Amino acid sequence: MVLVGALNYFGIQVSTRFGIILGSFEILVMIALSITLIVSAGSRNTFAVFTTHYATVPGFKGMSGIIAGSVYGVLAFIGFDAAAPLAEETRNPRRNVSRAVVGSCLLVGLFYVLTTYAATVYFGPNRFVQFFTAGGGNPWNLMATAVWGVGWVFLFIAFLNSNAACSNGGGCAAARCVWAMGRIRVLPKAFGRTQPRFRSPYVAVIAIFGVGLILTLWLGEQFTPPIAFALVGTLITGAILPIYIAVNLSCIVYYWRDRRGEFNWFLHLIVPVLGIALFVPGFFTGLGIPVFKFISKLSWPLNLAGPIIIAWYAIGIGLMIYFSIRHPDRIRDTGKVFIESEEPELVADSPSS
What are 178-210's pLDDT values in tens digits? Predict the structure, then answer.
């Protein structure tokens, strides 16, 4: 985390190239391993895994299991929109950022389908409920050792790269969000500063990676690393899903109210409604709110996620009300933080600033 934070401090070009190199290595290793597993599976290859045929875990049979499992799919996809905060530092952002966001969904989606299919048919769909605990909790290394022998080392390196690349991508996007909010004074002004030489939002970078490092170590010590990861994942999923639902709803309202001439029934109504329909049960499942019979209540400490998210949202709503009354211009400016502009507004630490 210290290494990735330092790379972000040195600017967007350094950090993004670092992410591309690590991410590419991971993807190539995982694709090669997936193809090996599919070939090794032989006659066990079947398209039945794309249906609910093997969704047989008691309490999660059929579509209920698919919906419950979608929570992990959502968690894995969170961050696909991380290119948006980089708009001000991107050439031709109106074209390139949209391509990056949509392209990442498609490419990573295909990547997930390939790797999950390979693991399922090789490990065996009938006993996949044991996958999580196989190999001492590391089933991918177990399978890599079985088909590659000592080649499992490449997978181990890829996993280390994955951690660094994920930290880099999330931290880079989060720092730009904090930086943008600092510039419009929704957060303290200091967060809007940039490093004079590298032109990076160094205060935001230090804050994001510093807080992230402290939380990582503290939560890991309090609850053990797997439980800490589950808690953070539950928090992120529960906090983000309402935002995704709101974005789908706003798409319908925006095009119907403000762009009626461009309104497309499929793109601007059916697709967002389907998105909402998929996200709503995933939200309740992720937080263990038993709206449906297949949803189980969360145990300690995962059940802390709900109260923390409520407090998180309450603070945000309170700040929005405060700024709407005292500084309405800052609320209006939140609509401009990631838009394309001719001259990006950078607040550098220099005598002139």
Answer: 998 898 888 898 998 988 888 888 999 999 999
Residue 66 belongs to a domain: yes
Reply yes or no on whether the pLDDT at 257 is more than 60. Answer: yes
Sequence-separated (6 or more) residues with CB below 8 Å from residue 195? 9, 11, 201, 202, 348, 349
What's the whole-number average pLDDT of the chain? Answer: 86
Residue 27 within a domain: yes
Say what the pLDDT of residue 347 is.
42
The distance of Cα 27 from the centroid of its chain, to the nearest Å, equals: 17
In whole angstroms, give the CA distance from residue 174 to residue 8: 11
Number of domains the chain contains = 1
At residue 338, what is the residue type?
Answer: F
pLDDT of 268: 94
> What residue numbers bound the domain in which 58 lies?
2-348
Per the structure block, which two tokens stand in for 240?
A: 């983000």
Name the CA radius of gyration of the chain, rounded.
Answer: 22
- Give the E-state strand segments of 32-132 in sequence order: none
Nearest by Cα to 45 from 114, 154, 112, 118:
118
Q: Looking at the predicted structure, is the pLDDT value of residue 344 above 50?
A: no
Domain assignment present for residue 353? The answer is no
CATH, residue 159: 1.20.1740.10
Angle separating helix axes 152-183 and 12-41, nearest 10 degrees: 140
Cα–chain center distance at 64: 23
As to burial, measured by CB atoms within 10 angstroms (0-12 exposed, 13-18 middle, 19+ buried), residue 247 is: middle
